[in-house]
Design goal:
Elements (H helix, E strand, L loop, with lengths): L3 H8 L4 E2 L5 H6 L11 H4 L1 H14 L3 E3 L7 H5 L7 H19 L4 E6 L14 H17 L4 E7 L2 H14 L5 E5 L13 H11 L3 E6 L3 H14 L5 E5 L5 E3 L2 E3 L4 H13 L2 E4 L7 H13 L28 H7 L4 E6 L8 H13 L3 E4 L11 H11 L3 E7 L5 H13 L4 E5 L20 H11 L18 E6 L6 H14 L3 E6 L3 H15 L6 E5 L5 H10 L7 H10 L3 H16 L5 E4 L6 H11 L1
Parallel strand pairs: 1-10, 2-3, 3-4, 4-5, 5-6, 6-7, 7-10, 11-12, 11-18, 12-13, 13-14, 14-15, 15-16, 16-17, 17-18
Antiparallel strand pairs: 8-9
Amino acid sequence: MKSKFIDRLDNQKKPLITDGAMGTLLHERGITFEHCFDLLNLEQPALVAEIHNEYIQAGAELIKTNTFGANRVKLERHKLGNKVVEINQTAVNLAKRVVLASFKDVMIAGDIGPLGVPLAPFGRVQPDAARQIYEEQIKALASEGVDVLLIETMTDLYMLREAISAARNVAPELPIIASMTFPRDGRTMLGDPPVKVAKSLSDFGADVIGVNCSGGPDQLLQILRRMQHAVPAARFSVMPNAGFPEQVGGRIMYPAGPEYFKDYALAFWNAGARVIGGCCGTTPSHITVLRQAVDNAPENSAMSDISVREVIPFEEQALADEKSRFAEKISEGKFVIAVEMDPPRGFSTHKLLAGASLLADAGADVIDVADSPMARMRMSPWAVCHLIQSQFNVETTLHFPTRGRNLLRVQGDLLAAHALGVRNVFVVMGDPTAIGDYPDAMDNYDLVPTGLIKLIKEGFNAGYDHSGGNIGQPTSFFVGGALNLCSSNLEREVKLMHRKVESGVDFFLTQPIFDPQRAEAFIEAYQAVYGAIKVPILAGIMPLVTIRHARFLHNEVPGISIPDEIQTRMDEAGEQAAAEGAQIAIELVVKLRKLVQGIYLMPQFNRYDVVADIIEIIK
């Protein structure tokens, strides 16, 4: 049976007009951003009702309930987790009373926003848990009789899939508007382009494919056109911000006034939008001009003559010239945590940055960015280091292999890294090209790792290049070297470590350690020959994921040996192997803590959520 909402979209010739922002108007009327806006349904219902009524009088045919953040995750931040049902049900009844008092035919959308935490593997919320959280909110909204569910401002396509699945589970009779938001580069936060989003939402079963928030009408018009071209038979909605937000005098301002929206109403309509409204910064005045533009235009109106600008490219902020904070933490004797990340194979960094954000929030002291791991083609790591440092309050360590670089490239790359704000470098030989994507690629090198460590410490950090030429001013690199505490050739590895110490290395990162006793024996062997180790060591910790993963590492990766006891634990864990691998990692940290000054975590298969949990337990 077709719903009233779908019947309205399919049979009326002109688009349906929705309301605009709720939070913007609440803030303008004295509610601080620290306050829970959703709680106002209970605390100040007259204020919420007043805003609903203003939008109805402006011409909105669909109003959104004041429940954008009324899910358990967000409400628990305000210690309101026990009020999910009450807040949502009250919001619907409040909106229904306003509609009844208006004597107008206005429908109600149950407004559902993001959880505010990312979905695994880039966050710690598993899909099943996310779906259950959405089911709780949606069931409450549906029980009071909303006409449609609006799942909006979503940044993760797969989180939106779980929300749609939740709606189908508990309220299969309700139509769904599923709406994504896009940063200024025109892709979602995880790098999905509009075409993929539109096709995916269609496959997920959304009744209306939406785009909202983002930079403003101009950007959303371009995204809408791409979506409509990808799925021409679909229904679409568009609800832009009133321009890109700006901070003026401590307040968030939106530059796009109501008249600016007027021309875009017709452009959205022409581009396939059947639902048009507003998001952040929009007011009843914006909705009034949308209403007038649609009402005064003839059916099947041609697009208005507007100038459509290109989407503004993402611009990176230059980093200040700073010393290494990682070095400062080590010098202060703090137990530090480094985490390794691999650059993407393509040019999109959205998923990597989502993982970096999670790790930074969890408390990682530094993120290590590998360079062509396993000799496979990847984005240049210094670009990734710069992006991470530009967007998050965490430093990076640039992995810097000498293999495949001559002296000119080595020095040029180091200067580029320093100019981009990278202060920590980890010098290694690098994997041979024979094992990677391009086995016939050049594999030569002019410097071994000990030579490059010496060049950086005695040359660049003193203001000179390899030939003795002045580079203008000294660099401030903090230089790491590789170490294998569980080497099968203990005597050779001890001598190699000492050469790196004499070359001036500042810290060591080790291969993954699964046998703390062997690591302790190595340290004792070094001290017996060369005395106390004065260079800090970060012990490599690799959380195992499956028994197959453990056996592969043990049998096929040089330098890694996993005791039978650990392999047995992973085998017996069965489906809980990943959790067991994390527990083993934590136990190894406890045993190694007396020997080293930090750990170097190596996530497997992009399981940043597992590593984040380990970091918080260690912290």
